[in-house]
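Worked example 3 (structure in, sequence out).
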C-alpha cells in the first residue's frame, strides 16, 4: 500500500491548482497526461485533491510534478 501524503499545514491541492491553471492545463488534460504515465488518477480524485479533501499519494505527486514541469518545492510551499 502506497503511503498517502497528508495536506497538514501545506495546501498541496491549491498549489497544484495554481500551477495547473498558470500552465493553461485543464483537469481532464492533466488526468489524461497522468494516466499516460501510468499514474492511477481520475478527474474526481484530482478535484478532491485540489480541494484538500483527499490525500495524495507519492506517485500521484511525482506524476503531477512531471506533468506540470514544476518542482516539489513549488508544490509543497
Amino acid at each position: 500500500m502506497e503511503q498517502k501524503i497528508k495536506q497538514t499545514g501545506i495546501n498541496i491541492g491549491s498549489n497544484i491548482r495554481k500551477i495547473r491553471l498558470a500552465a493553461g492545463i485543464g483537469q481532464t488534460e492533466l488526468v489524461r497526461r497522468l494516466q499516460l504515465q501510468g499514474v492511477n488518477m481520475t478527474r474526481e480524485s484530482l478535484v478532491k485533491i485540489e480541494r484538500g479533501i483527499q490525500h495524495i499519494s507519492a506517485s500521484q505527486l511525482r506524476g503531477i510534478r512531471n506533468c506540470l514541469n514544476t518542482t516539489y518545492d513549488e508544490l509543497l510551499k
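Notes: The chain has five helices and two strands. Strands lie at 4-5, 56-57.
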